[in-house]
Structure formats: C-alpha cells, structure tokens
Amino acid sequence: MSHETPHLRRLPRTDRVLAHPLLGPVRDRLGARMTKELVRTALEAARADLQAGGEPPDEGAVAVRVVATATAQLAARSRRVINATGVVLHTNLGRAPLGDAALAAVAEPGYRSLELDLASGLRGGRGAFAEAALVSLTGADAALVVNNNAAAVLLALGAIAAGRPVIVSRGELVEIGGGFRVPEVIERSGARLVEVGTTNRTRVADFAIALDAHPDAAALLRVHPGNFRQTGFVERPTLHELVALGRDRKVRVVEDLGGGALLPLPGLTGDPLVRDSVAAGADLVTFSTDKILGGPQGGVLVGSSDAVSAARRDPLHRALRLGRLPLVALEATLSQYLTGDLDAVPAVAMVRRTREELEARARAWALGVEDTGAEVVLLMSVAGGGTYAEEKLPSAGVALRTADPDALVSRLRRAPHPVLARIEDGAVVLDARTVLPGEDEWLLGSVRWAVGASSA
Ligand SMILES: *Cc1c(COP(=O)(O)O)cnc(C)c1O
To answer: For residue 1, what pLDDT is reported?
Structure first.
C-alpha cells in the first residue's frame, strides 16, 4: 500500500543512531566497526517490524536495541569466575586453574625458543622437554603432546589404523561429553570400527573371535568410560588380557584413558594411573593434561617408540599440535611434577585439602557474612566432572537458605566477581574446596551483593 514508503523513510538514519549517547560505552568496548554493524542489524529488525505494521522507532529505541545485543555479546566473553561448586576439574570452567609457575611462564613477554635448540642453534623438537618429562613420569618409551585428548585419540588411530579395522567393546562405544563420541572419532580417523561383545559384558574371547574374522585388524581399543558407570552384571577384559592377546596376534593395543592420575593422590584411590597402563604394555595410552595433571588443556600419547613415532610422522600431527601458550604452561606444570612440588598445582592442592581445613575456612566465611544467615555445612565434593572417577571427597562450605535458591544462584553468577554455586537440599551451597586462596574477599563481597539484591 502507498503509505509503506513514507513509513520506511521515517526510520532513523544510521549516523543519528550512532551519535546517540547510549552507544558511547558500546563503542568503547566493542569498537566502531562492530557497533556500526549492530546498529545496521537493529535498523533491519526495525524495518521488518514496520513492514509488519509496527510504529517507526526513534533513535533512542534503536539504540536501546543495540545496547541489548551488545550486552549479550559482551557477556559471552569469558571472564574469571570463582568456582564454589566443589568440582575441582570443572568442564565448563576451563577444567583446571593454572598455577603461578604456569601463569608466570605464559605471561613472559617476547619470543620463545619453541622449536630451536639454543645449545646448537639448530632446529629443536617442539615439546621435547614436555615429552622427556612425560616419559620419565609415566615410564613409557616415548611421548607426544597434542592439542587435547580428542586429538590424541584421533591421531593415534589415524597413524596406526587408517583403512584397517579397530576392535572395540560395545560397552565402550560411549560419548564422553563435549561431543566426543568414540564411534565417530574412530570413523573420522579413517579406521574401521568393529564392535564386539554386548553393552554390559565383553570378554577377551570376543576380541579373539573378531581377530579371526578380521585378520587385517590394526588395533584393539580400550576406552576408559570417564563419567559413565555400569554396575551389576558387567564384565570387560583387563588391559593385561588385551595386551596378551594383542602380542599373540601382532596387533597393537590402544587405551584411551582420558582422565585418571599421574601419581596416586590421597582420597582418589579409584583412579587409573597412566603408569599402570604403560606397565601393562599398551602400545599407546592417551590422556588429557588438564584432567591428569591439573595443567592447561593438552593431550598426550605415550607408549612404545614405534607407535609414538608413527603418530609423530603423521601429517595430522601438524594440524593437532599444541599451541605455544598451553605448551609453555604445560612445561611449567610438568616441572612441578618432576620436582614433587605438587601443592603448587592448584587442582592437586584442592584435592589434598582436608575437611578440617575446609571447615575452618567455611567458619570464617560464615562469620564474614553473618548478616546473610550463612551456616557452615559439611559437604561431599566431586573431584571432576567425568574426570577423576567421580569420587567424592569430604568437604565443607556454607549454605545460604532462601525461598528461591535458583534466583540466588543466578544472582551469584551475575555478581561483580561471578560465583558458581550449587543447590543442595533446597539451599545454595558454596563449597570451600575449589575456591582459590585469595578469592575469599571477592566471594564474600559477591555473596553480600547477591543476597542484598535478592531481598531488594
Ligand atoms: C575427556 C576424555 C576425552 C576427551 O578429551 P579432551 O581432552 O576433552 O579432548 C576422550 N576420551 C576419554 C576417555 C576422556 O575421558
């Protein structure tokens, strides 16, 4: 109809919206180009509203729309948060917090001898120190460092089994989280998945029969099920049995360990140790450096020299290599494992904290925010979201009772220093285990802010 054109003309001009005072702070944080794009998008939306019969907005209304989108985009930027969930290796919070040595190494300005041997001036192996440390710590013949454990599994299978069958128990065709699905990773590596056994029970004889049917098989794969537990009428071959079969039939054995531990830690006795898998004779064992060491994100393959060399030579290796910053942080973390300075690794220090220490800290917190009605409570924390074997550690913290715990949890998340809490028995609980030394004042400030805001 004829009145459409005059309406469209009445949309505010881009430069008028950009000049609106509300957009000054947006431009300061997102820059001129991105702000202009947001204004264009908001004007397009306003045009669509007009065509649907709405009223033309003024500059202010379009600016408000831009601020809303800009706020959402800024909120998507990662921020430091206080982890009061008690989950030491928290998948959504970057798994492990970095220790001082790792942080200092990452923060060093300048260039770095990443692939240069300073003694000879010749090209050196990237990650050579980390690999030597991992060899020493795990007892393996050789090690290779990549971007994460998903990359380590992909590379392991791609390098030794592309185009050939890999035999896996049906009970281990699991999804680990974050989209890591064992059957899909096998397929993408170029290997061919051969499933054996049943969901709950698989025996070594099932693998032997599959090897008869697939004499060209390249590997037997064993997957540590992470956060997935089967109990009851359940059976899976031990790694020793698979290694014996693999040796007999000249087929490699790969174990995707994912999490577990490098050294035994008190309270986490159920964790598989990398050293044990290596000693059992697996040709390749893969794991995450964040899960196993409490280090930066990274993946490791350890095992026999020839299997690790095959992975090193594979063209995929170049695509999956670890970046400079995590490699530098990994070197620092590994040095602490070598020297036994484990309390300097924050995730390890957290796992080692006793209930007595945590209770004392929780008492100080409760005093600090006495007016909020916070009470000291005994808790059980989980070491890792699917990482350490879901083992519970006796812990302590404070509980905040409120009519609407979800609302309080959400306000804590939006506090000036965001706090991640959990709800237990209808109360909001803050677990002292995972709050870093030095974060107490921020935590209490955020609690006061959130409780004040919820009663307002
Ligand atoms: C965690 C895990 C993965 C994925 O490791 P990322 O380091 O997250 O890439 C794969 N397999 C197992 C068994 C795991 O536990």
So the answer is: 46
Q: Residue ranges of the chain with pLDDT lower than 70?
A: 1-9, 227, 385-390, 453-456
Structure token digits, residue 433: 């285990």
Q: Which pLDDT tens digit goes with each residue over 320-367?
A: 999 999 999 999 999 999 999 999 999 999 999 999 999 999 999 999
Place of tokens 């995730």: 347
The SS3 assignment for 107 reads helix
Q: In what order do the strands lie in the sheet with 375-382?
A: 375-382, 392-401, 427-431, 422-424
Measured from the CB, is residue 277 less than 6 Å from ligand 1?
A: no
Could you give the CA distance from residue 284 to residue 305 in angstroms, rounded to a whole number? Answer: 10
pLDDT at 272: 86
Q: Whose CA is nearest to atom 5 of ligand 1?
A: 149
| Phi and psi at residue 156, to the nearest 5° | -60, -50
Pairing of strands 252-258, 219-223: parallel
Strands 82-83 and 419-420: parallel
3-state DSSP: the chain helix, strand, coil percent, rounded to 5?
Answer: 50, 20, 35
Query: What pLDDT is recorded for position 387?
Result: 53
Burial of 150 (0-12, 13-18, 19+ CB in 10 A): buried
What amino acid is encoded at 328 in this protein? Answer: V
Beta bridge partners of residue 398, listed in sequence order: 376, 430
Which protein residue's CA is at the shortest distance from atom 7 of ligand 1?
149
E-strand stretches of 151-206: 165-169, 192-196
Q: What pLDDT is recorded for position 456?
A: 44
Tell whether pTM > 0.90.
yes
Q: Which of 176, 224, 227, 289 to mutate to test the pocket of ligand 1 (most atoms within 8 A of CB)?
A: 176
180 lines ligand 1 (CB under 6 A): yes
Query: What separation in Å is there between the alpha carbon of 175 and the centre of ligand 1?
Result: 9
Give the number of other CB atoms < 10 A from CB of residue 129: 16
Beta strands in 340-391 (DSSP E): 375-382
| Residues 199, 201, 204, 205, CA torsion sign | negative
Report pLDDT digits (tens) over 315-333.
999 999 999 999 999 999 9
| 219 CB near ligand 1 (under 6 Å) | no
Record the tokens describing residue 429, joined without a space.
Answer: 């609980």
Measured CA to CA, the distance from residue 47 to residue 10 in angstroms comes to 10
Cα–ligand 1 centroid distance for 203 (angstroms): 24
Mode of pairing for the β-strands spanning 427-431 and 392-401:
antiparallel
